[in-house]
């Protein structure tokens, strides 16, 4: 997670006991929430899957898109998701193994690489799909997958943070968070509290308090999302440690 602020991961809170409700609902067409959960699942996982496929095969963007479509069609065929159980490990790990197995069967993948009906929309900003590939000559599909998995998860948590702070009348909190934590990705160094305070016309104490609150919320939102795809609280922390080390 080299280009993300690892301090946002924070310590370990407690969670209510849950199961992979999103995963299991997405794989069971008899449930009324199947379609919504399936779309949510694909939104989170299509870019990591694309990154894995492109890095593994060093394929051009369009070929990798076709294979990503074929992989998800394969994943949803014959109720594979509905048969999953949390005790077998994290959903992130299951997905990586599933893609690996799918690509091993080269002939099947080649035959399925241009499905008649597109299962999902692979829409991305201009140039983004070119980025979703090997970061270096020795990059592995597993690292590419994990890197993009956490990037997508983090981006979704940030969008949720913005929505929730605005709904709570705390839009200034997000402005502080954005200027201090997000915009510095394009700068050589992070701004100081004094610089943020001057830019946003706030006392430095408010900058510190708003930033602490927003970071705490991001930590909670990240764990909340990961918790849907693992079996226990310990697994949440393991997922976050692996993401931070990636």
Describe this structure in words.
- By secondary structure, the chain is mostly helical.
- It has one domain (6-245).
- It is built from 11 helices and no strands.
- The chain has helices spanning 21-26, 34-57, 61-76, 91-104, 106-112, 128-131, 141-167, 171-182, 193-200, 204-227, 233-245.
- Helix 2 crosses helix 3 (61-76).
- It is globular.
- Mean pLDDT is 75; it is low at 1-19.
List its salient traits.
246 residues; mainly alpha; 11 helices; globular
Secondary structure elements and pairings:
Blueprint: H1 21-26, H2 34-57, H3 61-76, H4 91-104, H5 106-112, H6 128-131, H7 141-167, H8 171-182, H9 193-200, H10 204-227, H11 233-245
Short description:
With 246 residues, this protein is mainly α.
Q: Compute the average pLDDT.
A: 75
Silhouette: globular
Proportion of residues in extended strands: under 5%
Distance between the termini: 5 Å
The largest β sheet comes out as: none
Number of helices: 11
Order of helices and strands: HHHHHHHHHHH
The helicity comes to 55-70%
- Tally the structural domains: 1
Question: What class, by secondary structure content?
Answer: mainly alpha
Give start-end ranges of low-pLDDT stretches: 1-19
The number of distinct β-strands equals 0
Q: Calculate Rg over CA atoms.
A: 20 Å
């Amino acid at each position: 997670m080299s280009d993300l602020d690892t301090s946002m991961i924070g310590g370990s809170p407690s969670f209510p006991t849950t199961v992979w409700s999103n995963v299991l609902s997405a794989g069971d067409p008899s449930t009324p929430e199947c379609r919504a959960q399936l779309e949510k699942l694909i939104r989170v996982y299509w870019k990591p899957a694309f990154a894995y496929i492109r890095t593994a095969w060093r394929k051009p963007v369009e070929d990798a898109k076709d294979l990503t479509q074929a992989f998800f069609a394969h994943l949803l065929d014959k109720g594979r998701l509905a048969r999953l159980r949390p005790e077998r490990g994290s959903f992130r790990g299951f997905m990586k193994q599933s893609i690996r197995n799918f690509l091993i069967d080269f002939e099947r993948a080649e035959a399925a690489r241009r499905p008649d009906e597109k299962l999902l929309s692979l829409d991305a900003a201009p140039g983004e799909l070119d980025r979703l590939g090997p970061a270096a000559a020795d990059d592995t599909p597993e690292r590419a997958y994990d890197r993009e998995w956490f990037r997508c998860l983090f981006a979704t948590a940030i969008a949720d943070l913005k929505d929730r702070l605005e709904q709570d009348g705390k839009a200034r909190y997000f402005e502080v968070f954005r200027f201090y934590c997000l915009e510095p990705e394009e700068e050589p160094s992070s701004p100081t509290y004094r610089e943020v305070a001057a830019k946003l016309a706030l006392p430095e104490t408010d900058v510190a308090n708003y930033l602490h609150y927003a970071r705490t919320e991001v930590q909670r939102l990240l764990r909340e999302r990961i918790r849907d795809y693992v079996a226990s609280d310990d697994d949440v922390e393991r997922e976050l440690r692996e993401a931070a080390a990636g």
